[in-house]
Amino acid sequence: MKLDTRARQATRGIRQAVGSIEGAPPVERLDAMRRRRRYYGQLAAAVALVLAALAIGGIVRSLARPDGEVPAGLPAPVSKETFVAQANAICAAANEQEAGTGVIAIKGEGWEEFVAVGEAALADLRALPRPEGDEEEIGEMLRRFDSAYATLSQPDILEAWRIAGQYGLDECTGLGYVPPSVK
Questions:
Q1: Would residue 21 count as lying in a domain?
Q2: 157 with 176: CB under 8 angstroms?
Q3: DSSP character for 63?
Q4: Which domain holds residue 154?
Q5: Left, alpha or beta for 98 (phi > 0: left; psi -120 to 50: alpha)?
């Protein structure tokens, strides 16, 4: 109890001393400035959290107008059939280009060109708008393809082909295929 009383007396004495210094703002004004600074800091943090939640949550996609049009700058929603058709076209072109490299063995002649074709196709696939609700499945397929091209991982390419086949991307099931070398 005595310590608490002494601490209050010391604080009161410091406040009186600071308030009596010539040119110093009154203690009440300093306290108000501190409260204001704390309030604005908390307000800025709250605004930053709300903006981050909006950006991360993808709420912007739900801002379509009542007439069904999507505001400029936002990707239009796409159906699964449209995505499959576009993705199969990209993969078919990539398969032809990969076959044209003449690669018959991993890391053999033309390997760099083969990988560049596959990576370009993956970039094109990544740029396609994805059907709502299928983002995770398509993302997993693309991650598996990325890993397969980067590490030459057979389990990753097989899993990527499996996901592509289940989704209906028949042309993508051959992306990255290296025929067995003939001896």
A1: yes
A2: yes
A3: -
A4: 80-174
A5: alpha
